[in-house]
Amino acid sequence: MLNFFEVFKFLTSLSTKILAYKKNYFNPKFIKMARAMFEYTKRILRKVSFDPNLFCTEVKKAMHYLLPYEIEELKVFVESMIKSNPELSRCTVYFV
After folding, report:
1. What is the pTM for the complete model shown?
2. What share of the chain in percent tops pLDDT 70?
3. Contact partners, residue 94, CB within 8 Å, separation at least 6
């Protein structure tokens, strides 16, 4: 279970990253690299889906370096993974 300080730290780091991304948001080179990171994340999550602990760790790491709209796409992707592998459902806590 996450405590208040972990959630606060996560939200603070997320807002800081959003401000940093906003500056480069319309740079085509930046968007292309960000998209590559999202595809790489999906590939890693497919490979580690056999272990719920490892899967949750990778989801948590992805939340730190993906763009806000990619986090929404990641949420949809994780939900589709959960349908085929129900024990991964505890990782949805990172999307709250």
Report:
1. 0.65
2. 66
3. 56, 59, 60, 63
